[in-house]
Amino acid sequence: MCVTSDIKLKRIFLKKLYLASLGCVKNLIDSEVMLAKLKDYEITNDPTIADLIIVNTCGFINAAKEESIETILELASLKKNKAILAVSGCLSERYKDILPKEIPEVDIWSGVGDFDRIDEMVNKKKSLFSKKVYLIHNEERIITGSSYHAYIKLSEGCNQKCAFCAIPNFKGKLQSRDIDEVIREIKKLKDKGFRDFSLASQDSSSYLKDKGEKDGLIKLIDELDKIEGISVRILYLYPTTTTKKLIRRIFDSKVVENYFDIPIQHITPKMLKIMKRGGSADRLKSLLEEMKKEFSFIRTSVIIGHPGESDEDFEELKRFLEEFEFDRVNIFAYSDEEDTAAFKRDDKIDEKTIKKRIKEISKTVKKTTKKALKKYLNKTIKCYLDGLTQDNLFYSVRAKLWTPEVDGDILINESEIENLEIGKLYNVKLTNLAGDQLIGKIIK
How confident is the model at residue 12, as a pLDDT? Predict the structure, then answer.
């Protein structure tokens, strides 16, 4: 009996799976659960040979919805005869009464509640929309994209009532995972070799408020600090539920990085009120200043062209971004979403004005980002090695403080250490800034 031949034959006849995971990292986590449920399939990057194609969609704003629909239609045109096309996620949940009729090429539809039942749906070739949101409870995941970093879901849903956001309409109220469950998942992944983690939810600073805990995130940090040999970042802090007490606890933590991902959306009192963001502009500025009291990384998001935004509001936002100098800023054009308070307003901003404002504020953000990068020059920081760049000319590393993919990388053109290992932490001295690209060398 030839074992090698048997393995080759098994791989030839193994069913193949193509997955397109769109949108946020919470979607990615759900996609990784589906991959684990379908571990009898071999993952392929070629949709034309796949027996099963899955699109995990995003339905947050118009641009994301368009991308999701375009992806579905493109993959429907590429799928081979008798292949199954399954669509899940936020877009299909939000438009579950419309999309199955409009896109009959899809074989299986599912929303945001049944990622752990994808194998059952595929086997029965049956759509499923449960009246719940999938939270994740000790299910296995096949982590994608990294051998040492993983995202961890803290909660689903949101209790905030932002005027522009439709997420609570299809994801419901906040539902938090238990601390023990989160810690257990991180320890299990650590045993498999993962050592860097990013915690994600719609509103991480409200973690456990649905269970009556006022300082749930602080209690989670207390438990995280008991785990040796890991680094952690917390994503998506909400301004009204973030406190100085939480900020100081992050500063004091042994494993949680001084990383603050806090979408402000706007800065004028008038616009914060129109957007239904809660709190005051003064309190928001005070929180941001607290985050600057130690060496930290502060990322934010702003929405340009929200109904009611005057030229004066825009200028004040632009001025604030220039003065505060965030490390990174995401700029979003207002997306007019049905079933939101903003959708009903009659003071909408025309598209031409929005594009003009975005072009203008993008120049400001480009300057402030470059200034933020300059603060690293001549410093030595801890970085994770990600491997060689595509042209094989440099090594690519990521500052331990930064989140993978969204915050960029650092190029290494010199190393005092041989036999470098992917996923290992190295001391990197930042020596140069070429445009907006930091360059450094690995030192002993």
Answer: 55
Which residues in the chain come in under a pLDDT of 50? 1-10
**Chain centroid to CA 370: how far?**
23
Could you tell me whether strands 425-434 and 437-443 are parallel, antiparallel, or unpaired per DSSP bridges? antiparallel
Smallest CA-to-CA distance from 84 within 110, 114, 106 is with 106
Count CB atoms within 10 A of the CB of residue 357.
Answer: 21
Please say whether the beta carbons of 97 and 119 come within 8 A: no
Could you give the angle at which helices 281-291 and 244-252 cross, rounded to 10 degrees? 10
Would you state the pLDDT for residue 10?
A: 46
> Which string of DSSP letters, residue by residue, matches 317-359?
HHHHHHHH--SEEEEEE----TTSTGGG-S-PPPHHHHHHHHH
- Return the residue matching tokens 């081979």: 80
Rounded to whole angstroms, how far apart are CA atoms 404 and 401?
A: 10
Position 62 scores a pLDDT of: 93
Full-prediction pTM beyond 0.70? yes
Of 283, 279, 299, 276, which Cα lies nearest the Cα of 403? Answer: 299
Cβ neighbours, 10 Å, residue 206:
26
Q: Give the Cα separation of 423 and 404 in Å (integer).
A: 12
pLDDT of res. 6: 42
Please check whether residue 257 is in contact with residue 237, taking contact to mean a CB–CB distance below 8 angstroms.
no
Half-sphere exposure (Cβ direction) of 84: Cα atoms closer than 13 Å: 19
198 backbone dihedrals φ, ψ, rounded to 5°: -125, 125
Q: Output the pLDDT for position 4.
A: 41
DSSP 79: P
Contact 409, 391 (CB under 8 A): no
* Contact yes or no for 388/394 (Cβ under 8 A): yes
CA nearest to 398, candidates 251, 198, 223, 260: 198
Cα distance between residue 216 and residue 223, in whole Å: 11
> What is the C-alpha to C-alpha distance for residues 294 and 375, in angstroms, rounded to an integer?
13
